[in-house]
Amino acid sequence: MDPVYHALSLYKKRCFEECVSTCTELLDKNPFDQAVWILKMKALTEQLYVDDLEAEEEGIAEAFMDNETIAESARPGTSLKNPGTSQGGSTQGYRPWTQTGRPVSGVVRPGTQTARPGTMEQALRTPRTSKTARPSTSQSARTIRLGTASMLSEPGGPFIQLSRINLGNYASKPALAKPLFLYILYHENNIRHALQLAVLATQACEFKDWWWKVQLGKCYYSLGLMRESEQQFRSALRQHQCVETFLRLGRVYIRLDQPLSALDVCRTGLEYFPKEVTLLTEIARIFEGLNNMMMSVKYYREIVTEDSTNVEAIACIGMHHFYTDQPEMALRFYRRLLQMGLYNAELFNNLGLCCFYAQQYDMTLSCFQHALSLAKDDDVADIWYNIGLIAIGVGDTRLAGQCLRLAISSDSAHAPAYNNLGVLELRKGRLNEARAFFQAAASLAPYLFEPYFNHSALSHKMGDLQASYIVIQKALEAYPNHIPSQELLRALEKHFTVI
Amino acid sequence: MSLFKAREWWSTSCGQEEGFDQASLCVSGLGNSGNEMSMIIIGSHAGTVRVFCPNLPPASEAPSYKPSDLLIEMNLPHPVLQLHVGRFISGSQQFHLAVLHPRSVAIYSLVIRGGNTEHGEQSALVFVYEHQLRRSAYSLVVGPFGGVRGRDFLCVQALDGTLSFYEQESFVFTRQLPNFLLPGPLIFIPSTDAFLTCNSHLHIESYRYQVLADTSEDNSKQLIPDWSLNIGESALDIACVAHSTSEVDIIVLGEHNLFCLRDHGTLKFMCRFEFHPRCFFPYLTVPEGLLMVLIATDTGTLLVQNNTTLRWSAQLPISPVAISRASLQGMDGVIVLLSETGELQCCYLGTEPSLFVAPSIEPKPIDYQEAEKELNYLGTVIRAFNDSSSVLLANTAAERELSISVKPSQHPESRGESEVCFVAVNLSPHSAHAPLTKVQVTVVTRSPLVAEPPSHSIASLSEGYQVASYITVKGAASEFVCSLEVSVIVSYITASGIPRILTSNCQLPLRLVAHPCNPAKEAEIKITLNTSTPEMSLTEIFPEFNSANGGPNILGFLVGSKVVTVIAAKTSTRYRLQSDSILPLALLVKHLIFRLERILKSVEPKASIKVTSSSPLPLDHLFSAIDSHLTCRKHVADLKEELGQLSVQFRAIERRLLTKMKDKKPAPLNQLDTLLNATQVEIISASHRLEQTLQDLENSQWVLGCAVELIHVLLQLSENPSKYTKTFYFAMSPEVIDSDEQGWEDITYASLKHILNTNKKQDPLTLSSSNDPVIDITNMKKIITSVLDVISKSYSTSGIDIEARKPISPIHESEEAEEEPTVPIGSRLAENRGLSAKATHQNKLLPGRLNASAGLMPDTSHIEGNLSKLAVSSPTQNNSEDDILWI
After folding, report:
1. Sheet-wide strand order for B309-315
2. Which residues of B touch A463 (CB under 8 A)?
């Protein structure tokens, strides 16, 4: 059999390593075989291909050196930075918030993890936990993966010496330039070289190829040149409508913190590609980021009618039901995920909680047993915390205390566990310990209002009205509409005016 | 990930390691049967062609592979790349098999001989004709090219992009595809009589057969595609589905998208995948005419889509490289799958969900009584863990495992400008069999003494070992040394995995910091010590400091740049230390006592000496040290603030510059670069100043440390030590450490306040929790004097006249009264304010004056009143406990 055919067949079967080694042998024999050279390039690229739309994280540099933001304090409901301002969204009282001040999402995505900090100082301070000592940097996950891969490359130096390559030569030959571009972008992750090639190539084809415009936009996007990237995507969309281009244009607007424009783009995309799942997902995520849960869930429901196996949609709808006090409904969604073959600690944890709140107590403990047996280091703290919650629910304070302590032992920055331990100590009458726990929780997680409120209530009870007054203001900062906090503040103010 | 599982209906496996590909599977009828009844034809890269015809078993039996299902198995000499069925023999309407080998394409016809034995008919493939190829073949396309009826022609795509056309037995022409680099999928669309391929430009291009045929005669003419569509990714496969003779859908399986095109090259719809597709098969449902696409993913899931909507998804038993749909003996829509290793399966979509059942984890039932017993036992273990007695126990065990001896060299060496003392640590483990691992020896000194290296680590220790550190005075600031004590901390892990820590102390020689010099007759500060020792001359006590400069009763020490004179009384056992500075005094007092004890112990091991001093406490010096330390800290904080502001400004300018640079139209920089430079210069100068100030801060920390140490030494030597002396020592530490958020003053203030509060037997609930940073020296002074008063008051109970202490209080009563309103209002409660004022008032009364008791009376009543108030208000606050929030 012809070895070139063999290599092509391996490529089609996605056996990239074998394909690369076959190509290497062929290139040793005939180094000028362009077809084999391109095939090897494609195989190397595919080997490392990551859907960069899904693996995207905003780092400090991007968030801080962002000079594109239009309004510092955006009008309510128009910015992803302060989702709490939107109308009709869920509040912290029902659905807990993440560190970033966004409501907890049904699935963990890159964007849901990092904060959009207000200032550099805040950014440097906040995201440090017991797990990571450094704030997340730009392009983290993808770059690390690609960086190591290109270093591993192969004996005898890298496949292509980018510095020696004459990009101008290749730019005019699209058959070579396109795979070469993808190789530079995905395998070498050298955005500047890739951009150079894209600029030359798009000139060579007289700006007629929309593909090059999208690639230019991708390069500009990763270099943080949002307006340029927007221009390229728009220009590409005028020539040819493609789902990916709509998605990428939407991402540009999200980065510019203009979620409403991003929604517009995705809706325009839906006119061309009705019921396209990826576009619907994007819309649902944006609404979730804006804290507009009703709309978000509406779109997730549309996704489920289109693709009934979409895990993200099912999980998010389940989460929504859970936090709107319908644990039985949530249980059905999570059970579907389990039946579909999802088998991880998070799912069992959620199942356990749903069972508990749906009063199916017999299932609760076995779900948590499963969750513990499957748990990895990252989430074992949360599982212990939830078991602690169950123990509090059934009134076993001894078990609760032990579970919460276990949660803290596996994640020393678990603020909710500190808070609940504080409440347990308070029940036992050890007021100073309780106060220390509340203070620890508040210092670890300034976005939670519960430790502040508890601390304030405790101080009030202990007669330290001044401290109570100071702390309750912080609680109201974290959650302005919390009625008991407001009442406490009013009582304190009244007290002070009397004095 | 799906709820359902594709059910296996019939399966077999073909050969071993023969190698199969997307093109290795062909489902079609051979011979006369046409497309009515499908046969499954498989060709392997090893050169074997197999024809299967699965038979429907009788209803009673479960369907399974039977040897009679395999009609033909034939070995060919060359690898089989692709198979096609069509009417390839002129004059025959029968369907024949075209087999593509790398260098040839061969046509076989199926011959069935009737038989009367049990296994029935006998089939064979008979070679008919063959075309030799000049180039390595990539794929084969068959169809009625040029609109012929009842005949199928062949087209072979070579690896280099040459298309060779054969009208059945005869060769017609060859044609090179333009823009060709790597071969892509190629199909023929009968309705438009065109060939469709995806080229290396990532375009789908359509070439009419007529155009291909015409241009082949004239090579100078450029081959122009009929239409072309840029799909932006390479296609894995292309297929066409005919709705009717005129309406055709072209389905393109890209690497990340599925495209559906109309026959004139416009996009009908597309959908994006979240997975990598492996192979697909589009078809139309009968009679609705809906376009369905079967897609197999790399995760082993089969998706059935109608346009973009997912209709069904099922888990596949194998991971296929080729997928097709067959009608077998009256059973329509059997899904045929072929895997890379040659597993062939016919499946159907079972509607009974195959629910995932999580494996159970703990089959062992729990014995609740046992478990409770264990829980109680563990509970006691946990409680015992917090007990301090077990720590002691652990330490004695540690001493049995390892003994440490620390020996400082008695004669410091001179190294350059500074003196160096050598500290040797001998480690001797008692058992050679169980080595101690991860041994770390840390030499801890108090600044400005520095140990070099500060710690040693030994991976494994089984026999005696010696490590050594050099101790020097940082910056030759000998006068700031207030303690010559060195502690050595050894931590290790025993053979049984238990971590242990041992500590050992030693004294460095005085010569490290002090030198003999001329005694000074007069000095500002004098400290007199009364001892119970027999008379000793100073030459006995300090033999190494003998010099001609003083007599036996007077000695001068030069500590750094400060002179300390020690005078021994001629008639009594009293010693006087005097100096102009308080810095070295603490060190010398401690050292003198240490030496006296040592000498006495060498004579009389059981004797104990009593050293007392009635010298006044040098509080003025302490306060001035605190003052300068506070000033330094404030200075540092100011500088840090300034640095912070400058860097914010720097980043702001950077941002402006960045905006300018990113602008399309080059705009003038408006002196932003100058501003940037200037800010940088300022940042650098501020950093230099900060460095300088940090040095000053360190100095002031040392001074403060010396002053505090002296206070503590004198308090200990006071004639009747109070029970608070020790507490006071821990509350006001001579080790001055300033962190970013908390300085020494803050810590000390808080601890002293605590002493005061607990001393007053106050209700602990009314303690203010505020830890505001101390800004004011007056607060500090006040609280220190108050605490000292508490300490001295505790003497008064033992009846000792401390009237002598009175003059040392630096704050006069009148002053204090004025300062009262400066009690931090923000941190105190309204009700407490009166209380604290009273408390200060009480503290102000010097002990020994009996009217103190009068002051106590109203105080207690006040506390009681306060308590009752709390009690009254508590019921209303009980409600708030119910509001306590769980998260």
Report:
1. B277-284, B291-297, B301-306, B309-315, B4-13, B343-349, B331-339, B320-328
2. 765-766, 829, 831, 870, 873
